[in-house]
Design brief:
The structure holds two protein chains of two kinds. Chain A is of the alpha/beta class. Chain A has helices at residues 27-36, 48-63, 86-100, 119-127, 147-164, 180-189, 225-235, 253-262, 271-276, 279-295, 300-303, 321-329; strands at residues 5-7, 10-12, 16-18, 41-47, 105-110, 131-135, 169-173, 194-197, 203-207, 212-216, 243-246, 266-269. In chain A, helix 6 links the parallel strand 7 (169-173) and strand 8 (194-197). In chain A, helix 2 runs parallel beside helix 12 and helix 7 packs parallel to helix 8.
């Protein structure tokens, strides 16, 4: 039985890819995923905001925290000489994963602006990343911003990155575009090698005691995969040389099969692996083989795109308060003198 | 001789370097000014820095200095090389073990940054009170007087202790030496190796407890042998001076620096000689050399090894021509006929004279100097020599103060300058505590001292406040080593910088400037207008002293180059550009190098920003022509207002102005008793933004005064007609709700000079304008728009009457916040997480409150002079406050409770006894009063007043006197022990536990910041797992101690865990319940602190996250509920509902571990998540348990 699939110009041994999650933070865990059958691994994300916040935090709370009070003038944290930034650690981790694994390693970058940080993409490439996934966490909360301005932001970022690196680039998108199909087409034209549909964000929640917002994290459910399924079904076969990845809500063999039937080149797995461990990938892998055998499919390419046009609406709010928190924590209140 | 390696370090680092290199087990505990030694040791060990034997020393933090001493004793008995660092009260706690360690002839060196002891007041600054209290322990006492000597003597002591088996107390002056930054020769590992005799190390190990060669040590001895046993050690002490001198000689061979037990400097035929030890030697030597050069026959003896006092070594250096000797002690021994070193010298010379070793007995006088880092200058030394010329020189003199009570002090001529000062460049910098001035200056010294052949010295004066503190940096540079161990004085500085524009009206900035000096001012006023900003006095000084004036808009440049409000690099660049201490280009290159060293590895954009700021600084620096005439129309404003009390005008205002050194003894309270309610006179005007009240949408919920850390926003409700004469902009509206009478108005008023601009009040405000969601009922607006307008409003607000407390329902936030805070305008940090709890307690119970305050942040912002935030109500009542120690605070409070209860009981007994005369009705009323409500307390006060009137008519009898003296205690008293987690979880835990067990009515308010905040953020047992703090540089590896669970185990203690930023009503209820419970209560209060690494404008959110993540569950345990058949424990917060990760990674204390040890960070996170989940369900299960109704009392 032939499970191979082409994804971002890479030939993968099967369509099951663990997506960006804390699982890839440990080399040992990544190895277990590979052993369970993962055909590539997408690393946890390197966040633009986290990099900025980190250096601001380091400056404020380690390098510059004098108080003028005699008993505590040297600040409140030890003075570390052995200090590696988040970026250094990430690059190091890319190298370690490349060393430990035989499957392709896809690095994940997370950001919203085309600032200086995009140069990090080059460093990721140099560290050995086989491809880079770009995850744009952007909430168009500015009511004066038009849809095309939002779209241009994605395109600008993509073009800037494209100019930096030669490895394939994958765009991970949210479903919040008024014309998703058109947007995907524009990205492909601007050089994207693939898209992953769809990203899911943290949802804000309200604490009824404090009357304040708080971050909440609810694992995905299979229902969420249906949105991606519909769009993959719509896009399948209509844009040349563009890989389609399905992400979000893939929990069972059934979910994976449906997305492949809709036309996905790969399915990304996250919540289910977090919940049930790397072995869940082997379970899905086995289920896929069994199902193909029952159904008489010889290869993945045979079944991919067989079904399309399922439709379930699932509007979702976007949120990334987790990272906003970090940023806020390091900025001065405007009312404080110093 | 080994190659010299010059480094720029402070005294603490110098001591820690040798201690870490020559020891294996280091037990530490934080106490200023010694904490840094422990911090260095911990940090080096966490980085894997190895000692002389190639192993990383094991550094362990203990629960107190007593614990550290015990651990050291054990480690020494176990055969390890072991040391500790301490000072002051910490050293006192080690004394019992010191006797043991010395009695057992165990080699060790304790490094002590000598500090004052708490007597009439606490002081963190330097003198020899602490070490002198250890004279009889049997430790050798070895004193270094400069940063170089600290490093050298640390090693000599280590070598000598190993050889002699006598333990050493190696000490140096707190702050003056421990914190002075100086360029010194760092001892090489080879030198250290050569000084440590491996045979002696082996011998030490061989003496250890070892089951393979069992012994017993520490026996209990009886009259038959104890005495003889004490005398066995004599030969060891007899040999010690010789051993030390031999080690000094060996050291000289290795380094070229020769020391002696006593060293003499001065004329060989000196007639007048002074003797002293410690940092004062630097100042004294400058005076002596100057006087000798000018033909005077004077000299000085530097005492190095003070105990054992080696008479022959002393006689060998003392010129036989000396006829008059002044012995200087840096301590005070009340009641003694002289201080310790004076008496030792007298007896030594008396002995020498009586046994014929000297031919004549010199006249010897003793004097005190330099207590609590009081300045000790060459001018003062000269005054002592002048005194010695007198026929009858004053014995028991003081120098450096004006003693107009006992007339002990010598007069000195402050303008005297020794020749040593020539050729030295003096620079003084006035900075705001948090603007980085001190760190930039330390950096400048490194640049000059390490980049050029010049020597440099830096010393830093600090303020008593934690927010908006002023620092004064004293920097000296010169071609020779600098031993001027005193501040830069009047007319001495060739460069003066003022980094903070508001200082120009508050301080006499150019007092230290000499003629022709350069003055650099940070000001946002353009160069062509800045002259007119200056007050008349400053202008006059500039003209008189022919000052060269430069101005730079550092805040503007900082903003433009995205440096925020961090102006240190900018001001440092300007200093190098105009001071001429280094060629400009060379200096700029060096600054950039230093910046790269600091930021290079930690963020490219930080580096670029700093480079941009350096370049912009040069471009933005302007010279200003100083006109020939004073043109300013304003003078420096008075320090305190005219209506201030007499004491405040005569004493407090002088302290506020920074002129406290001038106050004579007669103006000091003799017993350390100071008035309260003085913080209101210290107007610091720190806020860049102020809250503005939008009275049209405000619902009067009271949350803003609840959260304000400085009691700078208040609410009052009053009859509307009282606002008739209000200033035109005074805001007031009818109060909402039916709780208050018709026709009453409410005002929420900011104190514009006292607000620090933290913005927490706006953060908490739940009301938004529906039409304009950006507009809350409180909004921060630029201070310049509101400050002048709010000032008359605030003054008017203060004249409005307080609402009748008996008519308020304290259980509601809105009502409770109408109560007057009796804790206001403290010097706590901007956005402090502790002070709202203290303020709340004073609002609810302040008029009948006694506070025992453990040493720490709360005792500093609560009781650090010059002013105190505890205030009084219109009846003159308010919290009465005292600080005993760090370790005994619960016991201290219990003692207060016992005293009150006893006096109350006695009053009740005498009421019964005198009932006939007083009247049965009044007596019954007093005896049976229900004081559970404000009304009940009010009525009891009325009865006590009536009783006093009655007693006044009953004539003169003991019974009447007893009742008069005790009757005030018939009014319910509220006794509080306030302190931080260092006290309650660590050093004071034994006492806390005991007080909780007694069942007595004491309320413990634990302000839990999860670190030792006051001493700079050292780990406590309250520190959560994975948090990085000093003393746990690798992240705390154990869980936070569950103090609440321990207290609940008694079943008779009221326990609550609260976080006002998460659930203010729960906090309020807990305070009321705790206080009303007639037994011990403990309130564990989550207190975000700047040490957590999150901006405190997010204080409330961080509390909320702590609660929601399960880190800080809210609950109340009320033993009274058992009487009703309910479970005493009630959980007030929901099960963990945000990932623990989200909480901790919003704080840098946790985040930073990811950067130094991500694997550990991840492991700690995993364990902590499980821990918070399990603990919450444990609490839930507990709260669900069925309870058997308590037996009826009786």
């Amino acid at each position: 039985m032939d499970l191979t699939t082409d994804y971002l110009g890479l030939t993968l041994k099967n369509p099951l890819v663990p997506s960006a999650s804390p699982l890839s933070k440990s080399v040992e865990m990544a190895k277990q995923l590979e052993d369970a059958g993962a055909s590539a691994i997408i690393m946890y994300s390197l966040f633009e905001e986290a990099i900025t916040a980190e250096s601001e935090g380091t400056a404020r709370f380690q390098l510059q925290q004098s108080t003028g009070f005699a008993e505590a003038d040297d600040g409140f944290l030890p003075n570390f000489q052995d200090y590696s930034t988040g970026l250094e650690q990430y690059l190091n981790h890319v190298r370690q994963l490349k060393e430990a694994l035989d499957i392709p390693v896809i690095a994940s970058l997370n950001g919203v602006t085309a600032g200086g940080w995009v140069q990090h993409a080059k460093e990721l490439e140099q560290a050995g990343a086989d491809a880079i996934e770009l995850n744009v966490y952007y909430i168009a909360a500015d009511l004066t911003q038009t849809s095309s301005q939002v779209e241009d932001r994605y395109l600008d970022l993509l073009r800037t990155l494209k100019a930096q690196v030669s490895v394939p680039l994958n765009m991970k998108l949210s479903p919040n575009f008024s014309s998703i199909g058109h947007m995907v087409k524009r990205l492909a034209e601007a050089g994207a090698d693939g898209v992953a549909l769809f990203n899911r964000f943290y949802q804000p929640d309200i604490n009824t005691d404090s009357l304040r917002l708080q971050a909440s994290l609810h694992p995905s459910t299979s229902v969420e995969a249906l949105l991606a399924m519909r769009w993959i079904a719509i896009l399948y076969g209509r844009i040349d040389d563009l890989s389609l990845g399905a992400t979000g809500g893939v929990h069972t063999t059934d979910d994976a099969i449906k997305l492949l039937l809709a036309g996905a080149d790969v399915v990304h797995l996250c919540s289910t692996l977090l919940k049930k461990g790397p072995q869940q990938l082997a379970v899905i892998h086995k289920g896929l083989e069994e199902w193909m055998e029952q159904q008489g499919f010889e290869s993945v390419s045979e079944l991919r795109g067989r079904v399309s046009a399922l439709s379930v609406a699932n509007p979702a709010e976007l949120e990334r308060a987790n990272y906003v928190n970090i940023l806020d924590s390091y900025s001065f209140s405007p009312g404080v003198m110093v | 001789m080994s190659q010299q390696q010059m480094v720029t370090v402070d005294g603490n680092e110098a001591a820690a370097y040798v201690a870490h290199m020559t020891n294996e087990v280091i037990a530490i505990y934080p106490i200023t000014p010694s904490s840094n030694m422990g911090e260095w040791a911990d940090e080096w060990s966490s980085l894997g820095v190895k000692n002389l034997w190639g192993t990383v020393p094991d550094v362990i933090e203990m629960q107190s200095e007593a614990g550290a001493a015990g651990a050291i004793h054990g480690a020494l008995q176990g055969g390890s090389l072991s040391t500790t660092f301490t000072a002051s009260q910490g050293l006192l706690l080690m004394i019992p073990n010191m006797y043991k360690i010395a009695g057992e002839l165990t080699p060790t060196v304790f490094h002590v940054s000598a500090r004052s002891l708490a007597a009439q007041g606490l002081s963190i600054f330097g003198d020899h009170s602490d070490v002198m209290a250890c004279r009889s322990t049997g430790y050798a006492m070895f004193c270094s007087g400069s940063v170089q000597e600290v490093m050298d003597f640390s090693l000599i002591a280590q070598a000598a202790t190993l050889e002699s088996r006598i333990p050493f107390l190696h000490f140096f002056d707190g702050f003056r030496t421990s914190h002075e930054v100086s360029k010194i020769d760092r001892l090489s590992q080879d030198t250290i190796r050569a000084m440590i005799d491996e045979e002696q190390v082996k011998a030490h190990r061989a003496r250890a407890l070892n089951p393979d060669h069992p012994i017993v040590r520490g026996t209990s001895q009886n009259p038959d042998v104890y005495f003889q046993g004490r005398e066995t050690v004599n030969p060891y002490y007899a040999k010690l001076p010789g051993i030390v001198q031999a080690q000094m000689d060996q050291f000289a061979k290795l380094t070229g620096r020769q020391y002696q037990l006593f060293e003499y400097v001065g004329a060989p035929d000196a007639e007048r000689v002074i003797m002293l030890m410690g940092s004062g030697i630097g100042a004294a030597q400058e005076a002596v050399e100057h006087l000798v050069a000018h033909g005077e026959k004077v000299g000085m003896v530097k005492v190095r090894l003070y105990r054992p006092f080696d008479l022959s070594a002393f006689l060998s250096v003392l010129p036989s021509t000396a006829t008059k000797i002044a012995v200087l002690d840096r301590c005070k021994e009340p009641g003694a006929n002289g201080e310790p070193m004076y008496k030792d010298t007298v007896s030594a010379l008396a002995e020498a004279f009586s046994d014929g070793r000297i031919a004549h007995m010199p006249r010897i006088i003793g004097g005190r100097y330099g207590l609590s880092s009081k300045e000790f200058t060459p001018a003062m030394v000269k005054a002592i020599f002048d005194e010695l010329t007198k026929e009858q020189p004053k014995n028991g003199f003081t120098i450096g103060i004006i003693d107009d009570v006992s007339h002990t002090n010598l007069e000195w001529d402050a303008s005297f300058r020794p020749d040593a000062n020539a050729g030295v460049t003096n620079c003084v910098f006035y900075g705001l505590g948090s603007d980085g001035t001190v760190s930039a200056n330390k950096n400048s010294i490194k640049i000059i001292a390490e980049g050029t052949p010049n020597y440099g010295q830096g010393y830093f004066e600090y303020d008593s406040k934690k927010a908006g503190a002023m620092t004064v940096s004293h920097l000296r540079f010169g071609p020779k080593p600098i031993n001027s161990t005193y501040l830069i004085g009047e007319n001495e500085a060739s460069f003066v910088a003022c980094h903070q524009p508001t200082f120009i009206t508050r301080f006499n900035l150019l007092e230290k400037a000499k003629e022709g000096a350069t003055f650099l001012l940070n000001s946002q006023t353009p160069a062509n207008k800045v002259w007119n900003d200056l007050p008349r006095e400053l202008q006059q000084t500039m003209i008189d002293k022919k000052i060269k004036f430069y101005v730079v808009d550092a805040y503007g440049i900082a903003e433009q180059t995205k440096m925020g409000r961090r102006i240190n690099t900018i001001m440092q660049t300007c200093f190098f550009a105009i001071s001429g201490v280094l060629p400009r280009d060379e200096a700029i290159t060096e600054i950039k190098k230093a910046v790269e060293k600091t930021y290079g590895k930690k963020g490219q954009h930080l580096l670029e920003r700093n480079y941009a700021a350096i370049d912009a600084s040069i471009a933005g620096l302007y010279p200003v022509e100083v006109p020939a005439q004073v043109t300013s129309t304003h003078a420096r404003p008075p320090v305190v207002p005219d209506h201030a009390t007499d004491f405040v005008k005569r004493v407090t205002s002088i302290l506020i102005e920074g002129r406290g050194n001038q106050l004579p003894v007669s103006l000091m309270p003799a017993d350390g008793t100071w008035p309260t309610a003085t913080a209101l006179y210290e107007k610091r005007n720190l806020a860049l933004q102020l809250p503005k009240w939008e009275d049209d949408i405000c619902t009067h919920c009271g949350k803003c005064p609840m959260v304000c850390p400085h009691a700078a926003i208040r609410s009052k409700v009053y009859p509307a007609e009282l606002a008739a004469n209000a200033p035109p902009n005074f805001q007031h509206v009818p109060i909402k709700g039916k709780d208050f009478p018709e026709g009453y108005h409410v005002t929420y008023q900011v104190a514009p000079d006292d607000c620090t601009g933290c913005g927490i009040c706006v953060e908490v405000c739940p009301i938004r304008d529906r039409k304009d969601p950006n507009r809350k009922a409180l909004n921060m607006v630029p201070a310049e728009e509101r400050h002048d307008l709010e000032q008359p409003n605030w003054d008017f607000f203060l004249t409005l009457p307080e609402y009748d407390r008996t008519k308020l329902d304290a259980g509601k936030i809105k009502h409770a916040m109408m109560m007057q805070p009796l804790f206001e305008f403290s010097g706590a940090c901007v956005g402090c997480g502790e002070t709202p709890y203290v303020k709340l307690a004073t609002q609810l119970f302040g008029d009948r409150m006694l506070i025992a305050n453990a040493t720490g942040c709360s005792s500093i912002y609560g009781g650090n002079l010059p002013t105190t935030p505890y205030a009084t109500d219109p009846n003159g009542r308010g919290p009465t406050w005292s600080n005993s120690l760090f370790e005994d605070n619960a016991e201290f409070a219990l003692g207060m409770r016992l005293a009150i209860d006893k006096q109350c009981e006695q009053a009740r007994e005498y009421l019964v006894k005198l009932a006939d005369k007083i009247g049965q009705n009044l007596v019954d009323g007093l005896l049976n009063a229900d004081q559970s409500t404000e009304v009940g307390i009010f009525e009891q006060r009325e009865r006590v007043a009536a009783l006093k009137q009655k007693l006044a008519t009953l004539g003169d009898s003991i019974d009447v006197h007893v009742l008069e003296a005790t009757c005030e205690q018939l009014v319910k008293r509220s006794v509080w022990a306030v302190g931080g987690d260092g006290w309650a979880y660590d050093i004071g835990y034994g006492g806390v536990d005991h007080v909780l067990s007694t069942g007595r009515n004491v309320n413990l308010l634990v302000l839990d910041t999860e670190v030792y905040s006051n001493t700079g953020g050292q780990t406590s047992k309250a520190t959560p797992m994975g948090a990085v703090a000093k003393f746990s540089a690798g992240g705390k590896a154990t869980f936070k101690k569950d103090l609440a669970m321990m207290a609940m185990a008694y079943e008779t203690v009221y326990v609550a865990q609260v976080a006002f930023g998460s659930k203010d009503v729960q906090t309020l209820r807990a305070f009321i319940e705790a206080e009303s419970y007639d037994g011990p209560s403990v309130l564990l209060c989550y207190s975000p602190c700047i040490a957590h690494g999150a901006d405190l404008s997010n204080n409330l959110r961080q509390q909320d996250m702590a609660v929601n993540s399960g880190h800080w569950p809210l609950f109340r345990y009320d033993p009274r509920k058992v009487d009703r058949g309910e479970h005493p424990l009630h959980i007030d917060s929901k099960a963990p509902n945000i990932p623990y990760r989200d909480y901790i990674y919003s704080e840098h204390r946790f985040n930073v571990l990811n950067r130094i040890n991500p694997a550990a960070a991840e492991r700690f996170l995993r364990l902590s998540q499980k821990h918070v989940d399990t603990r919450f369900s444990l609490y839930e299960h507990l709260a669900d348990l069925a309870v058997q109704k308590a037996e009826p009392k009786g």
